[in-house]
Amino acid sequence: MASALAACGQGGAQAPDAYAIVILPTRTPRPVLLPGPTPVNPGTPIPPPTSPTPTPRPGGQPGRCNMVEIPDGWHISASCSLTESETSAAGPMVCQIQRNSCAFSLLIDNRDPTIRYFREEPPGFNDEDSLMHPAMLSPLTRLREAVAREWGGQYELMVTDTYDSFGDHDVNQPTMAKKYALHFEGRSIDLVTWPVEPARYPRLCALALTAGFDWVHNETDHCHASIRAKSLCEVCLGR
Ligand SMILES: [Zn+2]
Question: Ligand 1 mean position to 152 CA, how many Å?
Answer without folding.
Answer: 26
